[in-house]
Amino acid sequence: MKQFIAFCESFGSALCMLGRSACYINTLPRQFPRFIEQCYMIGYTTMPIVTILCFFIGSALAQQSGYSMENFGAKQFIGALVGLSMVRELGPVMVAILVAGRVGSAITAELASMKVYQEVDALVTMDIPPERILVLPRLAAVLVMMPVLTVIANLCGWYGGALVCQYTKSISVDSQSYFAVLKRFMTARDISDGLLKAEVFGFVVITICCHIGLSTRGGPREIGASLTKAIVTSLIFILVLDYFINEILI
To answer: How many CB atoms lie under 10 A from the CB of residue 62?
Structure first.
């Protein structure tokens, strides 16, 4: 019961933080340099690992499904399987997990350190709302960069699957047939649903990490505890939200 009450209090506090951030949305144009800095950190620095990981996810998916589908005489549909799997599920989820692990951890550590060493209190003393300069630019940046990263992840997964299909002798599906089947079964709804999931995941991850970072009390040990809590909570929310979003969209 105590854990449930603590969760409700934390959830309400996070909503209040979002509400206070929304009150300063009209100041976002004046924070353009901070916004660009966060776009660089969330998007550009995360892009290489997203590219490599999703390329090999698509490759492994095509490899494993190819061997199985060959037994049923359906290996010509590997392009549809890889394409839809990346767009609707693997692309958004893997990007969100990478953002949580790489960007979310950095945000939590930075904000927790600022809170512990009273830099956030100094902002409040100077009548500068922390939500305006610490939270709002990050939320805006993640909403811009998550679709970009997801599209890159999808493309890398598709091309990884295509290369495996073309150069694996036991599968032997040429790239032209692979992409023709992918295009035939892919719809705009599939792509938009995947991008919507990515937006929700990114927004939730950054909200959790900012809230836990700004709620940190104590010293260096508590900073480490907050970092662990933020990553674990983000991963749980990604997977739980993935299920419920699928229930709504399907």
So the answer is: 30
Q: Who's near 87: CB < 8 A, 6+ residues apart? A: 154, 186, 190, 191, 194
Residues in the chain: 250
Q: What's 28's DSSP letter?
A: G
Q: How far apart are CA 90 and CA 157, in angstroms?
A: 9
What percentage of residues in the chain have a pLDDT greater than 70?
98
- φ/ψ (deg, to 5) at 143: -70, -30
pLDDT attached to residue 96: 95
Q: Which two tokens stand for residue 243?
A: 């299920």
Distance CA 39, CA 23 (A): 21
18 contact partners, CB below 8 Å, separation of at least 6: 139, 207
Other C-beta atoms within 10 Å of 125: how many? 9
Task: Show the CA angle centred on residue 241, arms to residues 114 and 188, nearest 5°.
Answer: 115
List pLDDT tens digits, range 63-93. 888 777 777 777 788 888 889 999 999 999 9
CA distance 212 to 234: 11
Return the number of other C-beta atoms located less than 10 Å from residue 158's C-beta: 24
pLDDT for the residue 208: 94
Q: What confidence score (pLDDT) does residue 19 get?
A: 86
The model's pTM is 0.92
DSSP secondary structure of 6-47: HHHHHHHHHHHHHHHHHHTGGGGGGGHHHHHHHHIIIIITTH
